[in-house]
Design goal:
mainly alpha; 129 residues; two-stranded parallel ribbon
């Protein structure tokens, strides 16, 4: 399951809240919805938690992306938190943004892998060539 899919799945089974991952009932922010869908235990999490379990399960969440409102770069989990709490984005809209980030991350990795493969296949050149 991708992070964007987890937002959608978690959003389908919880209601959106702001200011906390969970309200202890059925409310979850976008990150909380991801955790819910992925089976990540949120017990004892508090504001400022490093979200290590979330970024371990979804490494893309630790990657740096362009914030769509501020125009600055930061870790995706912080951007998602901010879009949910400060900018009032729906979790569906956040999921679409996360999907875009996942696609950009995967494309960058595939481009880098292709570049490295091409470099390995290139004929050996020396200074005399």
């Amino acid at each position: 399951m991708k992070a964007s899919e987890a937002v959608i799945i978690g959003s389908a089974i919880t209601r959106q809240i702001k200011g906390a991952l969970t309200d202890g009932n059925n409310g979850r922010c976008a990150l909380g919805a991801m955790c819910e869908a992925a089976g990540i235990d949120m017990t004892g999490w508090a504001f400022g938690h490093p979200y290590s379990a979330l970024t371990h399960r979804f490494p893309v969440m630790a990657e740096s992306f362009l914030h769509p409102v501020w125009g600055t770069f930061g870790p995706l989990y912080q951007i998602v938190y901010n879009l949910n709490d400060s900018h009032g984005w729906t979790r569906e809209r956040i999921a679409a943004y996360v999907r875009e980030c996942e696609d950009n991350s995967e494309n960058a990795k595939m481009t880098e892998a292709a570049r490295l493969a091409e470099k390995r296949e290139a004929p050996c050149q020396t200074a005399a060539t």
